[in-house]
């Protein structure tokens, strides 16, 4: 075989050399595409608030170990870092998708529905792929074995979970079509975020006899109508004028999701964590889409009139004519921040007058906050973290019941009275200190 030397023009050789140099100096198109996908996955992981469950206090990010309470015992979140032995480092994209959207682990067992796969069934395959890229290439691997649930046999058997999944979890295929056009319509985008990635229904929708969410979409009025979670009432997010978002504008909703507060209320309990770790990091367009979708939801109870402010209680407190225990307890413990008018101080101490939280039929959140106190999240747009002290040691069950009954019947509020037995129940569940005289 003979070889022939070919002499190329100098200009061609120079261009080839420059191209080779550029290829070595700059990342390829594939590398940049993967980097974009990882950044998108990080954003989606924040929107889904994955860290809230998969990161324990003082633990490594996404290493799991957080106890999640259930009626049958504690379930511990899993390690979702890319560690190959204790995390998901050996998961394929298909394994990851089956876990996230189908609720099926790599070993074929059904996951506990503490993992909100009934909501994640609505996440698009493209977004699942971006999440996979982030968790595999954007998260630091942590070697931390998963902890077994504190659930005794026979309740610890896994086969009933498969039956539960088949009965109550939707098939992911049905959701993908709606996600395709979500970016072009704010309400559809909001629906995709709320019903799917944000899994808002996991807390804000009441549960049925088998602990399943009573509804998974906004067409059913049970969806986002409010439910008790971790000792707080996750409030009604539908358009009811009293206990819902009927009197909130879309801008009010965006403000609370962005900063943890608005002129109506402030985030507390689990919602404070959601704002802290998730919603404050979302884009303006996505927050606006969430607000537009929530405002599109019909109220649970149609035709309910919006409450109107009434200054009678304000005048009685100001003049000292109301000598009831509820009124005096309010003056001695609450009025300095929330004022005798009940209007509080905007963006600082929430208003109690005409508050949707105050109007909720279930007073669990109010009792919990009075007993254990609370704190607003510190966010980029509102870094000051205002707190409310705990009154568990200062007020008896009857004192708490009386002051909350007074609040729920003053300044135009019309909500049921609170009993001492209700307070005692929440005090025990919240592990609050005994009141005076105990």
TrEMBL record:
| UniProt xrefs under InterPro entries | Cyt_c-like_dom, Cyt_c-like_dom_sf, Cyt_C_IC, Cytochrome_c-type_DH, Membr-bd_ADH_cyt_c
Xref: Pfam families: Cytochrom_C, Cytochrome_CBB3
Superkingdom of origin: Bacteria
Q: Which organism is it from?
A: Cupriavidus malaysiensis
Cytochrome c domain sequence ranges:
30-139, 185-298, 321-411
Q: Which UniProt keywords apply?
A: Cell membrane, Electron transport, Heme, Iron, Membrane, Metal-binding, Repeat, Signal, Transport
- What residue stretch is flagged as signal peptide? 1-25
Q: What's the protein here called?
A: Alcohol dehydrogenase
List localization entries: Cell membrane
């Amino acid at each position: 075989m003979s070889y022939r030397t070919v002499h190329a023009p100098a200009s061609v050789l120079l261009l080839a050399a420059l191209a080779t140099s550029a290829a070595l100096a700059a990342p390829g198109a594939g590398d940049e595409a993967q980097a974009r996908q990882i950044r998108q996955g990080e954003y989606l992981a924040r929107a889904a608030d994955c860290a809230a469950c998969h990161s324990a206090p003082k633990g490594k990010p996404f290493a799991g170990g957080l106890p999640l309470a259930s009626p049958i015992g504690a379930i511990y979140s899993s390690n979702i870092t890319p560690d190959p032995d204790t995390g998901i480092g050996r998961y394929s994209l298909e394994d990851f998708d089956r876990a996230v959207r189908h609720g099926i682990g790599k070993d074929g067992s059904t996951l506990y529905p503490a993992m909100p796969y009934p909501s994640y069934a609505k996440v698009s395959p493209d977004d699942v792929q971006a999440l996979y890229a982030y968790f595999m290439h954007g998260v630091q691997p942590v070697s931390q074995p998963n902890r077994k649930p504190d659930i005794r046999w026979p309740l610890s058997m896994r086969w009933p979970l498969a039956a539960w999944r088949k009965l109550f979890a939707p098939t992911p295929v049905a959701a993908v079509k709606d996600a395709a056009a979500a970016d072009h319509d704010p309400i559809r985008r909001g629906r995709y975020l709320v019903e799917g990635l944000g899994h808002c229904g996991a807390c804000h929708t009441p549960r049925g006899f088998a602990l399943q969410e009573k509804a998974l979409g906004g067409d059913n009025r049970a969806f986002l109508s409010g439910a008790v979670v971790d000792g707080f009432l996750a409030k009604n997010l539908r358009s009811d004028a009293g206990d819902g978002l009927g009197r909130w504008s879309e801008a009010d909703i965006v403000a609370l999701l962005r900063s943890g507060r608005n002129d109506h209320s402030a985030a507390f309990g689990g919602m404070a964590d959601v704002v802290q770790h998730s919603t404050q990091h979302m884009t303006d367009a996505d927050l606006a889409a969430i607000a537009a979708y929530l405002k599109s939801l019909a109220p649970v109870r149609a035709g309910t009139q919006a409450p109107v402010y009434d200054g009678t209680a304000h005048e009685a407190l100001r003049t000292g004519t109301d000598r009831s225990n509820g009124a005096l307890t309010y003056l001695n413990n609450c009025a300095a921040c929330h004022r005798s008018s009940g209007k509080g101080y905007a963006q600082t101490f929430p208003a109690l007058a005409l508050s949707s939280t105050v109007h909720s039929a279930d007073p669990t959140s109010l009792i919990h906050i009075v007993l254990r106190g609370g704190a607003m999240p510190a966010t980029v747009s509102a870094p000051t973290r205002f707190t409310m002290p705990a009154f568990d040691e200062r007020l008896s069950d009857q004192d708490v019941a009386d002051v909350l009954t007074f609040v729920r019947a003053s300044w135009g509020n019309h909500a049921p009275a609170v009993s001492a037995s209700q307070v005692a129940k929440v005090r025990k569940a919240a592990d609050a200190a005994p009141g005076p005289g105990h």
